[in-house]
Each structure stands twice: as structure tokens, then as C-alpha cells.
Write a structure and sequence with these properties.
Layout lengths: L4 E5 L10 E8 L12 E3 L4 H13 L9 E5 L8 E9 L5 H15 L6 E5 L8 H16 L16 E5 L6 H26 L7 H15 L2 E5 L1 H6 L3 H7 L7 E7 L9 E12 L19 H16 L4 E11 L11 E3 L11 E3 L7 H14 L4 E6 L3 H7 L4 E5 L2 H14 L3 E3 L4 H6 L7 E2 L7 H13 L4 E5 L5 E2 L9 E2 L4 H9 L2
Parallel strand pairs: 1-7, 2-5, 2-6, 6-7, 10-11, 10-14, 13-17, 14-18, 15-16
Antiparallel strand pairs: 2-3, 4-5, 8-9, 9-11, 12-13, 15-18, 19-20
């Protein structure tokens, strides 16, 4: 993780001595058509800052487009060495999520230029509520600071060493302070997830993922257990083991527990993550092209581990348990074969495990999650959420824009949907239904692990639903959103940390 130091300042902007003072601007232009000209306006009440920027804003060179940047040296009458203006786009569309991205864009502007210190001025006007903006800004700065080039002998981008958020002194001061502290936890947790997802399969085996989760858990005071083959077999996790049996690397069953003092009844939220540290497809081997990307097939598990870090530090008044099923999916003499029939983990002695006909060994995520969901219920989870890079079909449907979401309970899903407004992440709900269930019926056993060519994201979700049973459950398919293909002004290309913020926000809504 980066070494960025973060602090909050309530000093007047003009007097702040800093390498770069970043200030936000919106485009106030409302007219349409060829006559329309951008009208960039700074989001500050500071007269000295306005004066320093007046000439360049009048020039028309800067349009205040989203994440557009403009740098001025020696801004007149300011203690700052440079003034960086960052656009939020059209005023009517700018939100607190634009502020998050703009802070990331400011950090990513200075990083490759060798500047290591930045002061970011919080917007001073509606609709940017000070506390929410403070949180978003520091989240965005931390997320922007992350670069994936950890194994370069000479790293291209060095971390920004110091980030100061400059907020207006006033009535909101203590709310801003606590939101800022929250934002640090959230941004760092998202980056922790990203650092795990970024690791290649040889450096992050299931065992090492278990160690990283355990170290993190100990450092933030979570309970934890990491089991391997023996326990997986003892629990009769036949679906999880059917994937793990084909790899020379032992699997890891990672359990993290958050049990706040004095909360001994009420709901227990169960977070279940797919932790395939490399997905070759198994005997149903994937084509070679792009196979290297399948190192990120543990991103759902990593999202749960990152969310648990944030939960431990932000201390909501509810019990949360995370189960991550980590294994490689490999072809091997011992690997399972298409046509094999596996028996999933039994929930209890009088509820035997479902039998699963393996049609395609590349549909392994749903197998490990099946037993993960059952185990989470057995450990007492009353509400379930899972995250997984589950299907290419979800990427075809939603592209790299929205994650897929599914639920067996509308009321329950509404809580997650509400959390998205705070997290700023995009998920789109997709359907479940009898017809999809029909598509995964097996001739030889209870269900099969693929449902044919069409509706692949829905049949995969329908498969998982069987193992959620009657428990309210949400499934997040993050296959398309967990890896950013092209760098954006506010975030590097590579792991995104998708779902961490939404899961956390959802947990905190209890
Ligand atoms: N991990 C993949 C899904 C995936 C694809 C994630 C692309 C990220 C990007 C998953 O295990 C898989 O292989 N799914 C198959 C299922 C099929 C065999 C029914 C798929 O989507 O092709
Ligand atoms: Mn697969
Ligand atoms: Zn997979």
C-alpha cells in the first residue's frame, strides 16, 4: 500500500504553503447549440484564489470538463507554489462522486510529474455537503494514488507523500473531521483489496491469500481462521473440493469474524467471496489468449477481505462474518472431469448436500461459492451477500460499466440499492426465475453447473440461489468491473477494488 499521509486543514486557502493547491471548477453553461460556450466557475469563496485564476478562466482555454486539469505556476497572491484547477463537468450533473474522481485526478496529475505534496480544497457550495465531500475527496485521493507496477525494478510512479484536505472552518467542522477519518479507512481498504487482486497467481496462492487475510485480521482486531484440505473434507465441501482437487496448491477456507462487543443477538451478515487465485478453466481449459487475466479471479474474495478491514475499523453495531473459498482451478491428473457428479456440503445431518453434474470445469466459481454459502449459513449468517468474477456472460450483458446484481428478496435488495447512492458504484439488477432454474436441471443428479449458451449470468445466479436456500441473499457478479482495461484520469488501469465500498455501505445501513 502507498505511504500517503493525510491531514485536514481549516486554514484560509490563500495562506496555505503547499506544492500544489487544487481547486474545483464546474461548467455553468446551460444553453445548448453552437452558440453555447463553457462557463467555468471555481467552487471557492476565496477571493485571492478567484483572482489568481480569473485570467485563465476568461481565456476560454479551460472548459471545466470532468477531470480536466489546468496548472498555473506562481499563482498571484497565494502561498501555494502552483494552482491546479480540476473540472467537475456540467454543474447540473456534478455530484459528490464527481468530487471523488476529481481528487483522484488531481493526485494522478501530480504523481508522474514528481510532485509529492498536494492540498485539495473542498468545494464550498451546494450540492456538495461538506462531510460527504470530505469523505469522497480523501477516498478518491487514496484510490488515485494506487499504481499496479509493484514488480517494476524502477517504479515509474512514486506515491504522493502528503495529501491535505482544506475545508472551510465553521459549524460542520466535527462532521467533516469524522467523515474525513472514515474516508481514509475506506480508501485504504479499497486499495488493500486492489493490492491483493493485482498479485499474480504465483505470488498469491490460496495459502498466501489466507496469510494476508489473517495478518490484516490480526492487525485490525478481527477474529479469523484459515483452514485447508482437512477441514474442507471434514465439512464435506464436495463442491469446493471438486475444484481444489485438481491443483498442487492446497486450498484455503478463510473465515473472518467481526463481533462487536455487546451485540449478541440480531442479524448476522454473511459475506461470501470467490477466491480463485488462478482460473485456467481446468480440464475444460480456457483458450490461451488473455488467460493471464484470470489471476484476478479472486477479486470477489478480496473485496470481502477489504470490506471486513473497513468494517473492523468503522465498527458498525452488527455482527458480520466473511467466508472466502480460495483455490486454483487447474487441469491435472487428479482434476475433476466433465460428467463427474459431486456432492455439495450438507447444511445439517437431515439436509444432505445437493448433487451437481459437472458439465464444464470452467464453471468453477459457483462450485466454491455453493459450499461457501452453505458454510456461512451454518456459521449463523441470517443474511447473505456474495461477490464473484463469475461469468463472461455478465460482461457481455453489462460491459465494463455496471456490475450484475441478483437477489431472492426485493426488500432486502432495496437496502443494497440504497447503499449504491453513497458508494457511487454501479450495479444493475438482473433477473432470476423458474425458467432459469429449469435450464440447470440435471438428468443424472439435482443440478448441473452450466445452463447452456444463453443467459449465462442468470443461470449461474440461479445455481447459487439453491445454496442460499431461504436466506435473504444478494449475488454480485463483478467479472466486468473488477479490472480497469484503460487508465482513467482518476484511477490507474488494473484492479478497481469494485464492490468494497458498496458492501461496506450496505453493512453500515443495518
Ligand atoms: N472466472 C470466469 C469468468 C470470467 C470471465 C471472469 C471473464 C472475468 C472475465 C469463470 O470461472 C468462467 O470461466 N465462467 C465461464 C462459465 C461457463 C463455462 C458457463 C464463462 O463465463 O465463460
Ligand atoms: Mn472459470
Ligand atoms: Zn472463474
Amino acid at each position: 500500500m502507498g505511504t500517503m499521509q493525510t491531514q485536514l486543514s481549516f486554514a484560509p486557502l490563500a495562506g496555505i504553503e503547499t506544492e500544489v493547491l487544487a481547486i474545483l471548477a464546474v461548467d455553468q453553461q446551460t444553453a445548448k447549440g453552437s452558440e453555447a460556450k463553457p462557463q467555468p466557475v471555481l467552487l471557492t469563496a476565496d477571493r485571492a484564489v478567484q483572482a489568481a485564476a480569473a485570467e485563465v478562466l476568461a481565456s476560454g482555454e479551460f472548459k471545466a470538463g470532468a477531470n480536466e486539469t489546468l496548472l498555473l505556476h506562481h499563482p498571484a497572491a497565494l502561498a501555494a507554489k502552483r494552482l491546479l484547477i480540476v473540472g467537475l463537468g456540467k454543474q447540473a450533473k456534478a455530484t459528490v462522486h464527481s468530487v471523488r474522481n476529481a481528487a483522484g485526478a488531481a493526485v494522478r496529475f501530480i504523481k508522474p510529474r514528481g510532485i509529492r505534496e498536494l492540498t485539495f480544497a473542498l468545494p464550498a457550495s451546494d450540492p456538495f455537503a461538506p462531510a460527504a465531500s470530505a469523505r469522497a475527496a480523501v477516498e478518491g485521493a487514496l484510490v488515485g494514488d494506487f499504481d499496479p507496477d509493484t514488480y517494476r525494478s524502477e517504479r515509474k510512479d512514486q506515491s504522493v507523500q502528503s495529501f491535505t484536505l482544506a475545508a472551510a472552518a465553521g459549524a460542520d467542522q466535527s462532521a467533516v473531521e469524522s467523515a474525513f477519518a472514515e474516508g481514509i479507512v475506506i480508501g485504504e481498504s479499497q486499495n488493500f483489496t486492489r493490492s491483493l487482486v493485482n498479485e499474480p497467481g504465483n505470488k498469491l496462492t490460496p495459502t498466501i491469500l489466507g496469510q494476508r487475510a489473517a495478518e490484516m485480521a490480526s492487525s485490525v482486531g478481527l477474529g479469523w481462521e484459515v483452514h485447508s484440505t482437512e477441514k474442507i473434507q471434514e465439512l464435506k465441501m464436495g463442491a469446493f473440493w471438486s475444484v481444489a482437487q485438481g491443483s498442487a496448491e492446497p486450498p484455503a477456507l478463510i473465515v473472518l469474524r467481526y463481533e462487536p462487543e455487546g451485540v449478541s443477538d440480531g442479524p448476522v451478515l454473511g459475506l461470501v467471496g470467490k477466491g480463485i487465485t488462478f482460473d485456467s478453466g481446468g480440464i475444460s481449459l480456457k483458450p490461451g489468449e488473455n488467460m493471464e487475466q484470470m489471476k484476478y479471479d479472486m477479486a470477489g474474495g478480496a473485496a470481502m477481505i477489504g470490506a471486513m478491514r473497513a468494517i473492523a475499523l468503522l465498527k458498525p453495531r452488527i455482527r458480520v462474518i466473511a467466508v472466502v473459498c480460495a483455490t486454483e482451478n487447474m487441469p491435472d491428473g487428479k482434476a475433476q472431469k466433465p460428467g463427474d457428479v459431486q456432492t455439495a456440503m450438507p447444511f445439517s445431518a437431515d439436509k444432505p448436500g445437493k448433487t451437481i453434474e459437472i458439465i464444464n470445469t470452467d464453471a468453477e466459481g459457483r462450485l466454491v461459492l455453493a459450499d461457501g454459502l452453505t458454510y456461512a449459513r451454518q456459521l449463523g449468517a441470517t443474511h447473505l451477500i456474495d461477490a464473484a468474477t463469475l461469468t463472461g456472460a455478465c460482461v457481455v450483458a453489462l460491459g465494463h460499466v455496471n456490475g450484475g446484481a441478483f437477489s431472492n428478496n426485493d426488500e432486502f435488495y432495496a437496502k443494497f440499492d440504497a447503499a449504491l447512492a453513497t458508494s457511487g458504484e454501479k450495479f444493475w439488477r438482473l433477473p432470476l426465475g423458474e425458467e432459469y432454474a429449469e435450464m440447470i436441471k440435471s438428468d443424472i443428479g439435482d443440478i448441473k453447473n452450466t445452463g447452456g449458451r444463453w443467459g449465462g449470468a442468470c443461470t449461474a445466479a440461479e445455481f447459487l440461489k439453491v445454496f442460499a436456500d431461504e436466506t435473504p441473499w444478494i449475488h454480485l457478479d463483478i467479472a466486468g468491473v473488477t479490472w480497469i482495461e484503460d487508465s482513467r484520469p482518476y484511477i490507474a488501469k488494473g484492479p478497481s477494488g469494485a464492490a468494497v465500498r458498496s458492501i461496506l455501505e450496505w453493512v453500515r445501513s443495518y
